[in-house]
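Dissemination and training. As part of the outreach component of the grant, students in the summer workshop were shown how a complex can be specified as a set of sequence lines and then modelled as a single object. The example used during the hands-on session is reproduced here so that future cohorts can follow it. Participants entered these lines:
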Amino acid sequence: GEDVEQSLFLSVREGDSSVINCTYTDSSSTYLYWYKQEPGAGLQLLTYIFSNMDMKQDQRLTVLLNKKDKHLSLRIADTQTGDSAIYFCAESINYGQNFVFGPGTRLSVLP
Amino acid sequence: EAGVAQSPRYKIIEKRQSVAFWCNPISGHATLYWYQQILGQGPKLLIQFQNNGVVDDSQLPKDRFSAERLKGVDSTLKIQPAKLEDSAVYLCASSLALQGVPYEQYFGPGTRLTVT
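and obtained this result:
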């Protein structure tokens, strides 16, 4: 079955770059997503990448996809204290079905 | 645009009792999802509706969980009887279409269930 893995914790200094990594098992994934969850709130979609792309950049966010290694990463440039949250990697298999989320990476930004 | 609404926000029940959660999706969103998020884990999809039909309920424990989406708008998720391991946050999400690019889900704030 599908499985998505992430490291559970990441701590960075304000102003540095953060890199959050994710690995997935299903090679038939169509879209891969990054969601952000702040305390007491629901998940918010940050960005997504289609499976035939290698990279996507959106302001401070850069997503890299290595299909061969089934590895996805999210880079946040100039990390701010407001970026402190849990970040979830997710995949969908059939264009909007079979969503599978990873366990989440808790990002702590130190002043 | 109003977001996805869920109620109640918090619920405490004893094991073997019943509980129901309500979700009102964003107006016009055809697809509705229920997720279970256990503390420290990512959300797990329980059921997905397209309008009032079920698209995927493969991970729904059907012996105790049920869900319906009458008239293709609001939805309720019920647990009967509850077990200790059902303690979790239940998230509702909605999306504009089953197949869309990009395929974005909008999440509600969730209902935190504690079973004692």
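Chain B touches chain A at residues 4, 31, 33, 40-45, 48, 55-56, 91, 93, 95, 97-110 (CB under 8 Å). Students were then asked to discuss how this feature might be tested experimentally.
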